[in-house]
């Protein structure tokens, strides 16, 4: 996948200012969700102005938009930084996420439109293809988009805002544990794809209770994955016998 952090947007045929500003916004979102820009990393205003051919005003407008959506935060007289992921952030995430996902799913079953369900199916197919091809960045982004569409289906602006903020951190944590290539993680990806299929079937049947049940099953899988990220297995303190002999000579 192209690394959007390294490309030079202003080096091609110069697009209109509005297009360059929109591209900056989308690029920064992508870089934050895929950890190309790490939590609490500084957003270099002057470098972005140069690379995107923009003045400070539109760049700062993008920063304010990202801040309002939970991707970044702005320090008075000190610029913008990527939203952190600290203990307090993760605690709030774990407390709120199951409730918000379940409420969103229940309302989605009541209010979705056929075109939205078709879009959800297309996104699920892209999610599955990303997993099969080993494209972890696409896997994380398509998973986010799947749940984002469910938020749109709910038709509730308050839940959508809360869900979208959750998805920022869900994606960043997810990008870390999806990078694992062991068999257990492949099985977890398969289970996640299966849950997505069940969501689609339950939505098509307008089965709210089934969606809530699947939501908590899906969340439990996500919670286990996140615990692997937060509390990884410790390093083995014992050196192999051969290595220990080498060091002692």
UniProtKB/TrEMBL annotation:
Disordered: annotated span: 1-21
An MF annotation (GO) of this entry: DNA binding
UniProt cross-references to Pfam families, sorted A to Z: FCD (PF07729), GntR (PF00392)
Keyword annotations of the record: DNA-binding, Transcription, Transcription regulation
SUPFAM superfamilies linked to this entry: GntR ligand-binding domain-like, Winged helix' DNA-binding domain
Highest taxon, organism lineage: Bacteria
HTH gntR-type domain residues: 18-85
Protein name per UniProt: DNA-binding GntR family transcriptional regulator
KW Transcription regulation (keyword) present: yes
CDD domains, per the entry: WHTH_GntR
